[in-house]
Amino acid sequence: MKKYLIIFSYALVGCSVVPVVQSVENKKIEKTSIRAISIERKDKVWFAGSGGKVGIIEFEQDSILIKQVADAKVEFRSSALVGENFLAINVDTPANLVAISKDLNVIKNVYHEEGEKVFYDSMYFTNSSNGVIIGDPTADCFSILVTNDGGNSWNKIPCKQLPKLVEGEAAFAASNTNVKVIGSTIFIISGGKKSRLFKSKDFGQNWTVFETPIIQGEAMTGAFTMDFYNENIGIIAGGNYDKQEDNSKNKAITFDGGKTWELLASNLYFGYTSCIQFVPNKNGKELVACGASGVFYSKNFGKTWSKLSDDKEFYTLRILDSKTIYLAGRSKISKMKLK
């Protein structure tokens, strides 16, 4: 009889067993808000955060290495691990993109921009050469930086080559997940008064814009986070930051590269969502999300969700595999093991 009780103690979605939390290991990073992390390898995670800080966590070695690489007023919300460097760019102006060696001893400024409206939100590299950084509009288009040499040099795409934004449309620097690159295809999600998908199949030369059904129309509404499993399957989530328990029209999925979207579990499960990510090697079916309602897991393309944690202080996450999730937020980075 005990065997059956153990088996059926798991939550079921259809015939799939939903993972449950085996353990959570927390590492405190005092007085630092963290919205950007990168996994170098199993148990080794890089982070960039407020206070001008970057660092490395090695969970197996019980090691934390932190370095302040900018003024204490600087807040990093976008980063990427590329080749032998860790790149991080701050929000607000002036924007400085720094390349930091893996021993944290060499720090080089590789891009600088000043201006009243300068504010960079998210960074993504598709390989060791090609990367994209997106920022809020300084005119009537996104600020988009591209590199093809691993981040050593950057070019800003002229506004005349980019789609126009409407007034009040921008992006949210919530979890370093507003941009994704797959091959030569760039995906960008906007939020605010409008929440749309911007897509370029030729690394920024030409663009197509698609409407989304997610809640929008106010300054703090729309998609705060996005991920694409491949060029067809994509997910967006967010909601209303000013009404964080509101779970209406706050998550949607596409199976045709963003042309059409289907709202998911509206008025169910979690409200405001800071980060959502696909679980690797699960054909796009499995997802993890974190935000104001806790941490959730789906095994059926986001139709239903199981709560993993009540912790509401995680802002971003990255997934190593179906058993290991790294999360970061208010003064901590955590390793969550599932079974």
Automatic annotation (TrEMBL):
Gene3D superfamilies: YVTN repeat-like/Quinoprotein amine dehydrogenase. It comes from the Bacteria. Pfam families: BNR. InterPro entries: BNR_rpt, WD40/YVTN_repeat-like_dom_sf. CDD domains: Sialidase_non-viral. This is Oxidoreductase. It comes from Flavobacterium indicum (strain DSM 17447 / CIP 109464 / GPTSA100-9).
